[in-house]
Write a structure and sequence with these properties.
alpha/beta, DHBP synthase, Rossmann fold, 5-stranded parallel sheet, binds threonylcarbamoyladenylate, binds magnesium ion
Length: about 325
């Protein structure tokens, strides 16, 4: 496979995973890692996740595999779970941004796994977007951000999960959830008992320094202004509807990203001046997760100025959905 040869030779290639598209390079090649940071415009203090295809690759990357990491990996790998473990000296500093830990994940996507196998490398890969933009869930998203800056992209169609992997630090006795994602907090607790939650996850909290460097940057943000409207569903919808009508008067381009249950509230209130997109049902948050990033990207394509989001239950994958929505809004939360 050409892409695998490219990675083995120090190039960088975007590829699909079950969560979002990644931008991969050989994890043991500092030049490739450098190219990844450059292409994304990523701050140098934000470490990368190393992707593996076999369990036996992990011991080369880490100094030890903590017992809870073994239990979690056995249950959830391959899958959308990233484990932060003590780093081995083999992993270049550039990958871990100088930290003494390394994040490792085994993706569950046939193309990703084949790429890792054929390139005979562990692959360092952040999401394949320009830093700060929503992660890409199709090859087309990747090309819009990175065309001309990378050596290629493998097209595996749209990603199944749609938000990034769950990141868990397993270096302490009680594991710490650093980023909610495709594996829920409830699933983690069922497997290893108590899980602490980094206080930055729900609402970004200026007082507590984030343990996952990625959590401190504004993320997942489209160019327009995002309003996250919290409150009883009918009241929130009524508020959004009124705002849409005002925006329409003023000729301001508007988007509403809503649930199937509330979509009818917005009939006719945006007109040709934007769009209303249903992300999914409030009772099936997997669908909301799957569609969120492409809907946020559509806002940029259509030059939307004001974007309205509703809130969802923070259960299951809902915790990841709400975390990404808080971040996309830059904490611009309207309580009605
Ligand atoms: O689903 C995913 O995880 C995707 C696909 C491509 O695998 N990758 C991804 O990578 O989302 P990225 O780089 O966009 O996000 C990695 C997150 C960042 O928040 C980073 O700070 C955190 O993981 N991270 C990486 N290494 C870490 C470490 N040693 N300690 C704490 N956090 C770490
Ligand atoms: Mg990212």
């Amino acid at each position: 496979m050409e892409a695998a040869a490219n990675i083995a030779g120090g190039g960088i290639v975007a590829f699909p995973t079950e969560t979002v598209y990644g931008l991969g390079g050989s994890a043991l090649c500092p030049e490739a890692v450098e190219k990844i940071f450059l292409a994304k415009g990523r701050p140098g203090d934000n470490p990368l996740i190393v992707h593996i295809a076999y369990f036996w690759q992990a011991p080369f990357l880490v100094r030890e595999v903590p017992i809870k990491a073994k239990v979690l990996a056995r249950r959830f790998w391959p899958g959308p779970l990233t484990l932060v473990m003590p780093k081995s000296p083999a992993v270049p500093e550039a990958v871990t941004a100088g930290l003494d830990t390394v994040a490792v994940r085994m993706p569950d996507h046939p193309v990703a796994r084949e790429l890792i196998r054929l390139s005979r490398c562990s692959i360092a890969a952040p999401s394949a977007n320009i830093s700060g933009k929503p992660s890409p869930t199709t090859a087309r998203h990747v090309l819009r951000d990175l065309y001309g800056k990378i050596d290629g992209v493998l097209d595996g169609g749209p990603c199944e999960v749609g938000v990034e992997s769950t990141v868990v630090d397993v270096t302490s006795r009680v594991p710490v959830l650093l980023r909610p994602g495709g594996i829920s907090k409830e699933q983690l607790e069922e497997t290893v008992g108590e899980i602490l939650v980094d206080p930055n996850i729900k609402e970004p909290n200026g007082d507590v320094p984030p343990r996952s460097p990625g959590m401190k940057y504004t993320h997942y943000a489209p160019s327009g202004k995002v309003f996250l409207v919290e409150g009883e569903p009918e009241k929130a919808a009524a508020w959004i509807r009124r705002e849409c009508l005002v925006n329409r008067e003023k000729g301001r381009r508007t988007a509403v990203l809503c649930s199937r249950e509330t979509a009818h509230f917005y009939n006719g209130c945006v007109g040709s001046n934007g769009f209303v997109e249903v992300l999914g049902s409030k009772s099936e948050l997997e669908s909301v997760a799957r569609h969120l990033y492409s809907a946020l990207r559509r806002c940029d394509l259509e030059n939307i100025e004001n974007i309205y989001l509703e809130t969802y239950s923070a259960q299951g994958i809902g915790l990841a959905v709400m975390n990404r929505m808080y971040k996309a809004s830059g904490s611009n939360i309207v309580r009605v």
